[in-house]
Amino acid sequence: MTQKKPPTVVIADTIFDVEATTAPFGKRWGTDKVTLSREHLDALQAGKLLAVDVMSEYVVFLALEHPGEVLAAASTSNRQPGHQKDKIRIAADFDQTQE
Q: What is the DSSP letter of 97?
């Protein structure tokens, strides 16, 4: 029987404490937060990759699954600025290899 591999990307509402939980990736030893600008999102939309330095030790490359598709902006007509649905959240995980 093949064991199901944990996900490599999840959407999270907050940064979670990786030392207090093993979900959703299994045991991890650190966290980092990456904030994307409009320029970053435009580059992804244009089919570019974003190279992200992770704790001065690893690099994770982010890409859109379907570059070029129009990302519709959420209507804010009935919401306050900063409403949860107006936020784009990207969480990335990377595989650590042992030498």
A: P
